[in-house]
Write a structure and sequence with these properties.
The chain is α+β, with helices and mostly antiparallel strands and about 260 residues long. It has 2 domains: about 45 residues, no CATH class; about 200 residues, no CATH class. About 20% of the residues lie in helices and about 30% in strands. The chain is built from 3 helices and 13 strands. Strands 2, 4, 5, 7, 9, 11 and 12 form a 7-stranded antiparallel β-sheet that branches. The radius of gyration is 27 Å and the shape is globular. The two termini are about 15 Å apart.
Length: about 260
């Protein structure tokens, strides 16, 4: 009886052991996303710039505090089960600066909108908000019950990435393990994906706001570059094929008996 069991189970055991020796190879890929929406808050007013071709971070010469918002469709762009290796947010600085400023990226904690407001040329004065625009006071203008919990936007207080921008900066690149962690979190929990806020570290000094190209810009749109890995199905190896031949030979032998 024991010999019969051994003959029956030996091939299956061999196959299982062989498969265990065949590691799954993971392939890394990179994808570049543009925002699904972006906007600028102009504090402490209900102005906005939904369709403007620039985003702002800092204090304008008119005294408005400006904070930019961006969001990306992570779930619709990445495969299920992707593991995020890195994330880099790249923004084009649109106007030569005669000053330097530190800009931080913060994780937003509530949803917000982009309407059809469009500021006049120069943009830093903002425009009257249109329906669904995010403003300093509300997440969706003209929509009842959508005030920010805190005027100026609801965001986690710890900066996720920081970039020092000088007059010679052409492209500002924000990259960190925290940004990658945000993307991973949004992939796992899409309902919590509200994007990021760009906020200047100095919001007191006037006239030193940084201008970035928005998604409406003809060139230099914001880009989120994501490097990710998806575990691949193990490929057959020589040992796997030999195990399969062993099973086939065993079956044929049993039929002859």
């Amino acid at each position: 009886m024991k010999h019969r069991l051994a003959r029956h189970f030996f091939p299956a055991t061999l196959v299982a052991a062989t498969l265990a020796m065949c590691p799954a190879h993971a392939a890394a890929s990179t994808i570049v996303l543009t925002p699904t929406k972006d906007n600028t808050l102009f504090g402490p007013t209900d102005k906005s710039d939904g369709l403007g071709d620039e985003l702002f971070a800092g204090r304008s010469g008119h005294g408005d505090i400006m904070r930019a918002l961006l969001a990306f469709d992570v779930v619709g762009s990445l495969p299920t089960g992707a593991l995020i290796n890195s994330a880099t947010l790249s923004l084009t600085v649109t106007t030569p600066q005669n000053h330097a400023s530190t800009v931080n990226v913060f994780t937003l904690l509530a949803d917000w909108g982009q309407g059809v407001s469009s500021a006049a040329r120069g943009g830093a004065t903002g425009a009257n908000a249109a329906t669904n625009d995010a403003t300093w006071n509300v997440r969706f203008f003209n929509v009842p019950g959508t005030a920010w919990a805190t005027p100026g936007g609801d965001f986690a207080l710890d900066a996720r990435a920081t970039q020092f921008i000088t007059g010679s900066t052409v492209t500002a690149e924000f990259a960190s393990a925290d940004l990658a962690a945000d993307v991973q979190s949004w992939l796992t929990n899409p309902a919590g994906n509200f994007g990021w806020m760009l906020r200047a570290q100095d919001e007191v000094s006037t006239g030193i706001a940084i201008r970035f190209a928005s998604r409406e810009s003809a060139i230099g749109k914001p880009a989120l570059t994501i490097n990710y890995t998806v575990a691949a199905i193990p490929e057959p190896t020589t040992l796997t094929l030999l195990a399969g031949m062993t099973v086939l030979g065993y079956v044929l032998l049993r039929r002859r008996r």
